[in-house]
Input
Amino acid sequence: VILILWYMFLKKYFSENSAFFFGLFYVFSPSVFINGDLFLWLAHLQQVALPTIIAMLLFYRIFYREKVNTLYYISLGLICGLGSWLDYIFVIILPVIFIFWFIKDKIFFLRKSFLIFLIFFIIGLSPWIYYNFTHNFDGIYFKGYGSTTIYAVASLSKFMARGKEIIGKIFPYLFYFNCWLGIIKYIYYFIFCFSFAILIYIHKKSLQGLFIDIFSPKIFSESYKNISKETFILIFIVIYILLFILHQKWIKIRYLSPLYPFIFAVVAIAINNLSRGKWIFLTLFVLFLIFSTSYDFEKRLPYFGFMKGFSYRGYHFYADFGEALV
Output
């Protein structure tokens, strides 16, 4: 379902090629994504991915259209409330939505549309509200270390040190393939970073316009129409990584796993923007992914027992592969 919705999203707001490329990268994905999704290790991804793409589909419709049916605000509020109840990490998309909404209308929070959104957001979040009111607000505590120690960074030096550790050591494991050639994850990581840089360069005017509009005194601004559709994805990734760096307990791959669809989308859109050699590069990259993925599957076949189902209990698989999750 997630793959289908992302395909629809990219095809509608970007291009059919980008959607097709995304599908290839989603299918031939890193081992952490495949195995983690199969054995429910990446719980944050599984809980956040569906409401996130639905919220993006709804908000893009709201943001890039002059007149929108009230049903879209109702649906957006409801899905954002449910997503926030399912996993706190979903909340990260809300400031991104509000930033773009603010650019379009500086007093959006006084509008009827936002009131509708807010009412249905509360309705979607009502299971969380009910639980906390009936369980002494136990749900606001982060298991194991309470609710008062959310952020770790007390100085710029600590922020830089943690950022270096995450970007240089932890983030590359998102691209891990259970393959004899360890450099593969760094090749994929480099391709993602290069793709991200390409999109920032291509849409630098859109990003500049975004920050200018934030501080613009105009209540209504037509310049929001010049903000590219890629900008939302880029801003979301930046905010997500910054919050990951700030948080003192988010040190595992599972907390970064909700970025997987965005990673695939960035690479897909960037490749589609190549003026020359697009299909040659795509062919080579997909062959590279097929090689890496097939090697992993071949190594994992004894666990599954080809055409026979699982040959071993789940904890054997977990013990063998768990080290890849950092």
